[in-house]
Amino acid sequence: MIGAGSDITMKLSSDDFTIAQTTADKDIIFTVNDGGTTTEALRIKGSTGRIEHLRVGDLTVDGTNTVTVTYTHLRAHE
Known about the structure:
The protein has strands at residues 8-13, 16-21, 28-34, 37-45, 50-56, 59-62. It has 78 residues and is an all-beta fold. The strands form 2 sheets. A 4-stranded antiparallel sheet has the order 3-4-5-6, with no helix packed on it. The chain has a two-stranded antiparallel ribbon with strand order 1-2. The mean pLDDT is 83.
């Protein structure tokens, strides 16, 4: 447990690992050190239970974007 009121808990149960933010409506934020700069890589919004900010490779998803269907056409190198 972490925090004065055990705000963060971690547990292992039936081989499932759970990290929990137990304070109402508070976020879980994952950051990395990117060349000396702290950079947010993932934010799980406590008030909605949704991922708010996600960086994956060249894709950054942020805000209230809604994507229902996407297609990627890959062409073999000639």
